[in-house]
Amino acid sequence: PGRQSGSLRAPNPGKQTLLWLVEVVKPFSLLLFLFLVFHFSQRFTTVVPESCVLIILGLVLGGIVLIANKKQLYQLDPGLFFLFLLPTIVGDAGYFMPARFCLYGAKMAGVIDDNVEAGLMEFLLFGALISAVDPVAVLAVFEEVHVNEMLFIIVFGESLLNDAVTVVLYKVYISFVEVGPGNVLTADYFKGVASFLIVSIGGTLVGLIFAVILAFITRFTKKVRIIEPLFVFLLVYLAYLTAELFSLSAILSMTFCGIGCNKYVEANISQKSRTTVKYTMKTLASIAETIIFIFLGISAVDKSKWAWDTGLVSCTLIFIFVFRAMGVVGQTWILNKFRLIPLEKIDQVVMSYGGLRGAVAFALVVLLDGEQVKAKDYFVATTIVVVFFTVMFQGLTIKPLVKWLKVPRSTNRKPTINEEIHERAFDHILAAVEDIAGLSGYHHWRDKWEQFDKNYLSKLLMRKSVYCKSELWEAYQKINIRDAISVIDQGGNILTSARLSLPSMASRTSFPEVTNVTNYLRENGSGVCLDLQVIDTNPGAKVEEETETHHFLAGNLYKPRRRYQSPYSRHFMTLGDQERQDREVFQRNMRNRLESFKSTHYKRHKKDRSQKKARSHHRLSHLRLLLTPRVKPTKSQLKGELSEPEKDEDVGITFVARKAAETPKERPKSVPAALEVCQSPSVAPPSPTCGEKNLPWKEGIGALPPCVSVEATKIIPIDLQQAWNQSISSLESLASPPVPQEPQHPRVSALHRLSVPPRPPVPPPPSRAKFQFPAWKDEEEEGTLSQQHREMQPLMPSLRPPPPPPPPSSAQSSGKRRNPCVYLRSLVTTPPSGSMPHSRGPTQL
Amino acid sequence: MGSRASSLLREEDIEEIKKETGFSHSQITRLYSRFHSLDKGENGALSREDFQRIPELAINPLGDRIINAFFPEGEDQVNFRGFMRTLAHFRPVEDNEKNKDPTAEPLNSRNNKLLFAFRLYDLDRDDKISRDELLQVLRMMVGVNISDEQLGSIADRTIQEADTNGDMSISFSEFIKVLEKVDVEQKMSIRFLH
């Protein structure tokens, strides 16, 4: 039935021109529409759901076409729909679906789908397709109103899977209908159920197989970056076609292919390919959905396509509402039996009310075969009405409804600045304490899976060098230029200020404005300029200024970590902000840890300085060697962008130990671990001590490919994982716990016991993961120390660089440029003013 | 894991912790197994690195401050008792214990919750949040694209708003006062799993 009929017709010439005109207008209007939607949607869709806009546009377009031609030109073609439109939508959903959601989704999706049940086969069919819920609009609402995190996940999962499940059901029913209601025996119902299971499970399997293949292929595309995205698209699409070939659920196959391969493919392909894949997928899906919605609008105008039946329409409307509510209540009742945190009444209301029917339902109903389903026209009409009603009416009212339900407790009073700040702080505190208490869910099976994934799958499917790839790292570092500068700038303050343990973030006020990078960043910064001094002199503007401050704060305070803040949307990629924030916070934290580590030891150094000056110096130079920031060979690429002389290192994170003391027996036990992380080629293979073998992070590093700790992969953005590992391992190896106040702390004494090597020429003592820096920990114990000191003595002079310390060994080889190592070293080694001026280095700008 | 972890925890310890913190028995064992899994050194106490190893904290703007809050002044180890004592601040206030024992203030009282937050700001423990201390926390909580002048003026404004006695800092009583309209009991509570 659905046939692209425009080209077949050749009426009189005048009409022909008009037709042609319409053909020309079509892309333009599409363009216009896309522009409208994507330009204004950010603001607009907060009031009107996106799909509303689309449908209205479709109506307008359909009206124009109808006036022009009296007959509908564009219709959905099953081939077009199933081969192109659906795959793109589903593929997009699958690829972007965070893996954790799929379990919940699977739980939910199966149930909502049988909402409307009528006796006849056709009605079953209709029921299947009309129950396809389109939750994109709901999700948008959920974000704004505070919603239970669980609820978000449930609806999210439902949204992603029920398109697929609906299509599967639809196909099953359609085969029933083809047989004819009279011929369907009881056994056939069971067969139907069985085939449903087979179709879905088979489809899922096919998808997963293709996911593995795809991941495996991308492992070897290093040389041919340009075709990486092509591989991704082709294989995902192939998964779809293959499943279709075997009459399995192509949708599920595609969804799971996307989910399955995402992690490995993302790790394997280059940054650019990744971006390409992301954007292409989004674009295609947007286009597909847009087209469907426009079809919807068009066919709503065309009377010949549908037949009205008030009874059917109203019954359907009532039934979908009632059944959805029943389904939701029933399921949540069951779920609540197993859940620690029950779903509340309000959640259920939102879920019931959020059953917006969308494009997929409409597409399916249009594709019904008019020969076999006699009531097709009625169904079409009903579907259109349902979609209109749910999208327009419910979509528009759901937000006020939720607000109305929620509001009774909160007042309209505007929060004061204090409240705003402190409440945000509370949020962060809560998030942190939740993480510490480990409440974000612990699942035995999930951990098992992650173990398996780490041990086998990742090794098989990920490129060996994937985490050592420097381009990711570079991109990351560019973001951090400014902070790197500020660290250097702060350096002096921190080391000379009295409160050493408080690396002052606020000390940037001293930061000269002339540096280009700063100015650049500042220009790019928020447009809100709060010149409070000016406003303060003008009491009239007080209120205005308050609002502005609020606005400002609300926009710029970090959001607390919440999973529902990275929602899936068909049209926008929302991850940017969260990711950026994570980066900023992450590197800030790492820097702080490092600084407090430094200052701690510096304090100790200061304390002991009077009597142990010489030794401290040795120790410092030792530290200096350990604390050399990693120098990237590729760094020169950044040169052009920086007029500042080479300050582009993010010192806070990239600290790794370098070849400090080459002789194994001299080296603190855990340094080799850090050495391996940075893969310095010149490092002599460290002799593995038992301590090393026991180090938790050691296994991953020894086996190199995925040197990402299991835990970190969940949280840290993929391109930060290397940084995370490095910092963790280097912090662990470098940072001993901050100053033990009482000398006889149990742990310290334990360390003493551990750290005393029997006699100099003896292999390093077995050490535990906790244990670092014997020479430092043991300051209280003269005996041990002097002994160790003596050990170190002969080596130190040769190891210590000349007073204005140039980068030793590999740093030197990487170029004659003055790099942050120098600065850093000066930070690390700067003694209190006056005591050792010579080691201050030539580093003042 | 539960059985092994709880076997290390003696009944009388649980009872004591229960009394002190108000957690239920199963909550305590559950949290103990968490404690145990964090304790990489297996010495019955957590160090700062143990906390720092939690990846989520690395992307929490106040992560390190909160880690510090777990450690008593000058200590660098925290045992299970101390761990639980800190966590107890975040136990939700239940209806039946609101007026149970007015003499001993439970750890999860409104005041204690607020005090916990206050201590995150008040680094030098002089019971005042100075402008400098506030600025540090603000800097942690905002994006990099806010200039220092802007931040400074926000800090000034914040202090002005809260400061009643004109010493240009926020004392604890002023802190309570300025947040008196906030539902602290709800905002500073976590639903611990039973």
From TrEMBL, chain A:
<dbReference type="InterPro" id="IPR018422">
    <property type="entry name" value="Cation/H_exchanger_CPA1"/>
</dbReference>
<feature type="transmembrane region" description="Helical">
    <location>
        <begin position="193"/>
        <end position="217"/>
    </location>
</feature>
<keyword id="KW-1133">Transmembrane helix</keyword>
<dbReference type="GO" id="GO:0055038">
    <property type="term" value="C:recycling endosome membrane"/>
</dbReference>
<feature type="transmembrane region" description="Helical">
    <location>
        <begin position="350"/>
        <end position="368"/>
    </location>
</feature>
<feature type="compositionally biased region" description="Pro residues">
    <location>
        <begin position="757"/>
        <end position="767"/>
    </location>
</feature>
<dbReference type="GO" id="GO:0098719">
    <property type="term" value="P:sodium ion import across plasma membrane"/>
</dbReference>
<dbReference type="InterPro" id="IPR006153">
    <property type="entry name" value="Cation/H_exchanger_TM"/>
</dbReference>
<feature type="transmembrane region" description="Helical">
    <location>
        <begin position="151"/>
        <end position="173"/>
    </location>
</feature>
<keyword id="KW-0812">Transmembrane</keyword>
<comment type="similarity">
    <text>Belongs to the monovalent cation:proton antiporter 1 (CPA1) transporter (TC 2.A.36) family.</text>
</comment>
<keyword id="KW-0050">Antiport</keyword>
<keyword id="KW-0406">Ion transport</keyword>
<feature type="transmembrane region" description="Helical">
    <location>
        <begin position="380"/>
        <end position="402"/>
    </location>
</feature>
<feature type="region of interest" description="Disordered">
    <location>
        <begin position="600"/>
        <end position="621"/>
    </location>
</feature>
<feature type="transmembrane region" description="Helical">
    <location>
        <begin position="80"/>
        <end position="98"/>
    </location>
</feature>
<feature type="transmembrane region" description="Helical">
    <location>
        <begin position="277"/>
        <end position="300"/>
    </location>
</feature>
<keyword id="KW-0915">Sodium</keyword>
<feature type="region of interest" description="Disordered">
    <location>
        <begin position="733"/>
        <end position="845"/>
    </location>
</feature>
<dbReference type="InterPro" id="IPR004709">
    <property type="entry name" value="NaH_exchanger"/>
</dbReference>
<keyword id="KW-0739">Sodium transport</keyword>
<feature type="transmembrane region" description="Helical">
    <location>
        <begin position="18"/>
        <end position="41"/>
    </location>
</feature>
Automatic annotation (TrEMBL), chain B:
<dbReference type="InterPro" id="IPR018247">
    <property type="entry name" value="EF_Hand_1_Ca_BS"/>
</dbReference>
<comment type="similarity">
    <text>Belongs to the calcineurin regulatory subunit family. CHP subfamily.</text>
</comment>
<keyword id="KW-0106">Calcium</keyword>
<keyword id="KW-0963">Cytoplasm</keyword>
<keyword id="KW-0677">Repeat</keyword>
<keyword id="KW-0813">Transport</keyword>
<keyword id="KW-0519">Myristate</keyword>
<dbReference type="InterPro" id="IPR002048">
    <property type="entry name" value="EF_hand_dom"/>
</dbReference>
<keyword id="KW-0479">Metal-binding</keyword>
<dbReference type="InterPro" id="IPR051875">
    <property type="entry name" value="Calcineurin_B_homologous"/>
</dbReference>
<dbReference type="InterPro" id="IPR011992">
    <property type="entry name" value="EF-hand-dom_pair"/>
</dbReference>
<dbReference type="Pfam" id="PF13499">
    <property type="entry name" value="EF-hand_7"/>
</dbReference>
<dbReference type="GO" id="GO:0015031">
    <property type="term" value="P:protein transport"/>
</dbReference>
<feature type="domain" description="EF-hand">
    <location>
        <begin position="26"/>
        <end position="61"/>
    </location>
</feature>
<dbReference type="GO" id="GO:0005509">
    <property type="term" value="F:calcium ion binding"/>
</dbReference>
<keyword id="KW-0653">Protein transport</keyword>
<keyword id="KW-0472">Membrane</keyword>
<keyword id="KW-1003">Cell membrane</keyword>
<dbReference type="GO" id="GO:0005886">
    <property type="term" value="C:plasma membrane"/>
</dbReference>
<protein>
    <submittedName>
        <fullName>Calcineurin B homologous protein 1</fullName>
    </submittedName>
</protein>
<keyword id="KW-0539">Nucleus</keyword>
<dbReference type="GO" id="GO:0005737">
    <property type="term" value="C:cytoplasm"/>
</dbReference>
